[in-house]
Amino acid sequence: MVQQYQSPVRVYKHPFELIMAAYVRRFPNCPLIPIFVDSEVVKEEHSDDGATVFIERRCKVEADAPRLFKRMAGVDYLYFIHKNTLDRRERALHIEVVNETFSNRVIVHEICNYRVHPENEEWTCFEQTASLDIKSFFGFENAAEKLAMKQYANSIKKGKEIIEYYLKELEDEGVTHVPRWSPPQAPPPTARLQLPLTSAPANAILVPTAEETLSASPTDLPPGSPDDKLDADYIRRYLGDLTPLQESCLIRLRQWLQETHKGKIPKDQHVLRFLRARDFNLEKAREILCQSLTWRKQHQVDFLLDSWERPQLLHDYYTGGWHHHDRDGRPLYILRLGQMDTKGLVRALGEESLLRQVLSINEEGLRRCEENTRVFGRPISCWTCLVDLEGLNMRHLWRPGVKALLRIIEVVEANYPETLGCLLILRAPRVFPVLWTLVSPFIDENTRKKFLVYAANDYQGPGGLVDYIDREVIPDFLGGDCLCEIPEGGMVPKSLYRTAETLESEELRLWTDTIYKTASVFKGAPHELLIEISEPSSVITWDFDVCKGDVIFNIYHSRRAPQPPKRDVQGAHSSIVSPATNNMQLIDRSWILGQDYSMVETALTCKEGESVQGSHVTRWPGFYILQWRFHCSPACSTSSLPRVDDVLASLQVSSHKCKVMFYTEVLGSEDFRGSMTSLESSHSGFSQLSAATTTSSQSQSSSTVSR
């Protein structure tokens, strides 16, 4: 497996030329890197005007590895080839590093770049990428890989001191400015001075230039970074202290989202929560993040706080609310569960209304975390929850109520990971162990570690509530002096209870009232959607996510109306609802492409996890068919119209099934304002949705498929 590293952009508040003057002092060896033994120039080239210089060096590094590894490898030193290109005119230095030792067993490739900051020409940016591929290493590939990555991460931390050390040395010598290069006015002299062009190896076995990843002094840069890349100071200010490898995981996942979810990138804090929930395993974090983004999009969770109006029953009987913050600045939510009539709320409102209430609490918590980050000047990504269980009894263990609680826990765990900083459970009664036995298996292990339980009045002593909350904000019902404006709760009148049939109908309406639909795409059985156009120049717009598998997206036009579609309803499951997932085929197998129907857009291959938006301006009236077709490799591809037996067989093979979630809309030409990423029509439901997302920097053509 190839291990990769991507650094954030690090900014030096020094001109490029001064950084290069400090850089040259690291040769031929560096006292801060004892394992860097020596280096020699093997090739040097200069352009005629002296603006560009290329130098290749062979660097000798002591193998900093356990004695067993050295004896197996039979070497005490490692050699690396550094190819460095300095462009004085553009004020940029490009460094490329590959390993010479064990090149048939191990492939090390590192690229570093120094360049001028795009917004301040007196500052310098540094960025680094690296990859490690151990093909074979005497049967110890996994151990060698872990050792190499660990030492590489350590070398990055140590390397942050290198440039600052030599900048300080220059300052002590009175050198604080180096003039910029300018084209020569006379023929260049025959003798050339050696310039700071090469890179010294770092304190690592495999990638010597890791020390180039240096930390800039704190800057006043706004959130974000040059060229839409993460800045090291931004990470430290808004996301917290991350190890180099954790920074790399965040940057790589963010880059992947930019490539596949253009215009809809979640906030960095949100991405980081999913990485933490999976211990920075990039593949696992990407999987659950994509599932959550699809869930949020399908159920329009981003608009929940603005669009959902809480029923009056929740205002009167839901005993929870936000209350100041804890000692660490995290928002504090208080829930008086023992005073809540959970059975009455479920019978009167239904499970889905309670779920929406909890989702709105989590969405509000995310907002408050962002606000507190700005107020306190440090990263705050989670909140504290205080649960008062006084009054908890067997009534709270009513089976439908426990079922609703378990479902809420499941949804929150899947879509709001690492948002709970601490859960304080106070005045736990004897019945609490029964409830805990029921719900604890559904709570993630990392989340369970954040639970603190206090029985009776134990929370009042040392190690209790005052260790987490300032005395002046302790609620009055817990013995404090702060007024807590949370409803007292009480029993919900039975006259407000509704029948099971009414609740079921209401719940179905709540979670199926969405602009998005889902469809299954099988090998040999595409999903097709019919759109009838009566006026030319109408605009067909679409937005879809590929939830599973790879698909090919096509748009066809026909003047003939297809026959009534045949439907193949397959069961599907969602974390909130379980609507039927349809597979619909419209194009008759007797139709001939080019005669009965024609393709009006170039086919687009869409990979799993991609989010695709686009639009098509119609040229003729008639019937337009949007088609999502199963995509497989050429070796396993078949005709577009297979035998019935083939289709039935493919339906039983999960690997031959894809799933898409889509929304389409037809706009009049007078309502269209460009591509899907910039719709502004007041008549468009989708335009309201896209306005709440981050639009991509480049608008796609309105008559082409855009991603």
Automatic annotation (TrEMBL):
CDD domains per UniProt: SEC14 (cd00170)
One annotated Gene Ontology cellular component of this protein: cytosol
Domain of life: Eukaryota
GO biological process: negative regulation of RIG-I signaling pathway
Gene Ontology MF term list: RIG-I binding
Domain (PRELI/MSF1): residue spans on this chain: 2-175
Domain GOLD intervals: 512-666
Gene3D superfamilies: CRAL-TRIO lipid binding domain (3.40.525.10), GOLD domain (2.60.120.680)
Pfam families in UniProt: CRAL_TRIO, CRAL_TRIO_N, PRELI
Domain CRAL-TRIO: from-to ranges: 310-486
Region span, Disordered: 688-707
The protein's name in its UniProt record: SEC14-like protein 1 isoform X2
Organism (species): Salmo salar
